[in-house]
Design brief:
The chain has 171 residues and is mainly α. Helices cover 57% and strands 6% of the residues. It has nine helices and two strands, in the order H-H-H-E-E-H-H-H-H-H-H. Strands 1-2 form a two-stranded antiparallel ribbon. Helix 2 runs parallel beside helix 6, helix 6 runs antiparallel to helix 7 (134-141) and helix 7 crosses helix 8. The two termini are 27 Å apart.
Length: 171
């Protein structure tokens, strides 16, 4: 089952219920649109206001930027090698973040299927709202086709349509 879009208030609820490190990872996802696997694999030495990331899924490179406050928060908890150190010698796993996001969404009884990828959809919707340019969102997400981008960037409209359909079906 695919993850779904979160409304602004729901994002706040989920963030509030996450562990501190996972909240920081989610904030990076929300600010950059990166997949959670790419965020947890960030190396401390590569961090900066602007830096390049090679996406694990697509092998495409893209430039991302972080505001000073978010960058300072990451550096404050970063390890010598990994920006988000895990329990053992490696970095935090995407699965650990996924479990925490699922727990947080369940705690607030959110009806959507929520996962870390939901933050990427929120990023896409906010980018489309801000610029009104689907091609710009496509480039920011590194999507090959605009069709996939439309699904992401219009996730808020799909959620509203689902709610409306559910209301219409009630007896």
């Amino acid at each position: 089952m695919k993850t779904e879009y979160l409304l602004h208030q729901q994002v706040g609820h989920v963030l509030a219920a996450l562990t501190a490190q996972n909240r920081l990872i989610a904030r990076v996802c929300l600010h950059t649109g990166l997949r959670v696997g790419d965020v947890v694999a960030l190396r401390t030495k590569d961090l900066g206001r602007q830096f390049m990331v090679t996406e694990a899924k697509t092998k495409k490179r893209r430039r991302v930027g972080l505001p000073d406050a978010l960058l300072a928060d990451i550096r404050a908890q970063a390890g010598p090698v990994w920006a988000f150190p895990g329990r053992s010698q490696g970095h935090k796993t995407r699965q650990a973040v996924w479990c925490d996001v699922k727990r947080a969404a369940k705690a607030f009884r959110l009806p959507q299927n929520v996962g870390p990828h939901s933050f990427r959809k929120v990023y896409a919707v906010e980018l489309l709202d801000k610029y009104g340019d689907l091609r710009r969102v496509q480039r920011a997400l590194n999507h090959s086709g605009v069709e996939t981008t439309m699904i992401y960037a219009m996730a808020d409209r799909l959620l509203e349509a689902k709610k409306a359909a559910k209301i219409c079906r009630r007896p």
